[in-house]
């Protein structure tokens, strides 16, 4: 049994409250995040530091990779895109913590693009249905066949950082962030669950509790206004 938190986007105080609700109800549960914990909201540095300190496992989102490339490869498309995708709030959050910048981007660099846990498959934006054309017919019996495709294609529009395609049915429950909804959305046809519930637009931050591919609980917290105002 694990918990998976949706897109945080700098909403540190909301994250802390959600985390405390999770561990109060499910002590010692393993917690994951689908990424996009920076940008948009006011407290990106604090949110990432909290994730590190609490040992929350995460898959990086497109926002983390834009942040990373801004410092490591500033001429890249990722770096240039960050200017239009919430960079100002994130840079402001590091003004008093400049020593944390390269420490944090190193943590991001080391994070895997996905987790294939016994309970579910986790990535930021989901595995595109287009990948089915490049996989063996029996790929669902061994999801490790996805690895090279995912890691080699992460920069593309259909990659697990950016995908807006219909998700590929993996034969296993897939947990996805990135695409914002008012409520958690279950795509029954493709065995996928979308858990980004728009924390940074003032809606809420949500988490699902997953046990053996079943969503057994949903825990959410209304966005704290000091995270976004």
General description of the model:
- There is one protein chain.
- With 229 residues, the chain is α/β, with parallel strands linked by helices.
- The protein has a single domain, classed as Purple Acid Phosphatase, chain A, domain 2, CATH 3.60.21.
- The chain is built from 7 helices and 10 strands.
- The protein has a 5-stranded mixed β-sheet with strand order 3-2-1-9-10, covered by helices on one side. The protein has a 5-stranded mixed β-sheet with strand order 4-5-6-8-7, with no helix packed on it.
- Strand 9 and strand 10 form a beta hairpin.
- Helix 1 runs parallel beside helix 2 and helix 3 crosses helix 6.
- It starts with a strand and ends in a 7-residue tail after the last strand.
- The relative contact order is 0.20.
- The model has no long low-confidence stretch (mean pLDDT 97).
Salient structural properties:
alpha/beta; Purple Acid Phosphatase, chain A, domain 2; 229 residues; 7 helices; five-stranded mixed beta sheet; single chain
How many helices? 7
Tell me which CATH architecture applies here: 4-Layer Sandwich
The side-by-side strand order for the widest beta sheet comes to 3-2-1-9-10
The total of beta strands comes to 10
What value does the average pLDDT take? 97
Kindly give the count of domains.
1
- Separation, N- and C-terminal Cα atoms: 35 Å
* CATH class wording: Alpha Beta
Structural class: alpha/beta
The CATH superfamily name is Metallo-dependent phosphatases
Strand percentage: 15-25%
Largest sheet geometry: 5 strands, mixed
What is the N-to-C succession of helices and strands? Answer: EHEHEHHHHEEHEEEEE
Rg, alpha carbons? 17 Å
CATH level-3 fold name: Purple Acid Phosphatase, chain A, domain 2
How does the overall form come out from the CA principal axes?
globular
């Amino acid at each position: 049994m694990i918990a998976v938190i949706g897109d945080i986007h700098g909403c540190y105080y909301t994250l802390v409250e959600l985390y405390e609700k999770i561990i109060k109800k499910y002590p010692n549960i393993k917690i994951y995040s689908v990424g996009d914990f920076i940008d948009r909201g006011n407290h990106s540095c604090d949110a990432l530091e909290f994730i590190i300190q609490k040992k929350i496992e995460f898959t990086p989102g497109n926002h983390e990779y834009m942040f990373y490339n801004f410092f490591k490869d500033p001429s890249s498309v990722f770096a240039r895109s960050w200017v239009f995708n919430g960079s100002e709030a994130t840079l402001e959050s590091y003004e008093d913590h400049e020593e944390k910048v390269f420490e944090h981007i190193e943590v991001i660099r080391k994070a895997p693009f996905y987790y294939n846990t016994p309970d579910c498959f986790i990535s930021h934006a989901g595995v595109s249905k287009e990948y089915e054309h490049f996989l063996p017919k029996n790929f669902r019996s061994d999801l490790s066949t996805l690895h090279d495709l995912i890691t080699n294609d992460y920069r593309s529009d259909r990659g697990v950082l950016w995908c807006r395609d219909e998700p590929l049915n993996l034969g296993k429950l897939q947990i996805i962030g990135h695409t914002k909804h008012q409520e958690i959305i279950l795509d029954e046809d493709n065995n996928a669950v979308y858990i980004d519930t728009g924390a940074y637009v003032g809606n809420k931050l949500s988490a699902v509790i997953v046990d053996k591919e079943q969503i057994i609980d949903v825990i959410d917290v209304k966005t704290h206004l000091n995270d976004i105002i």
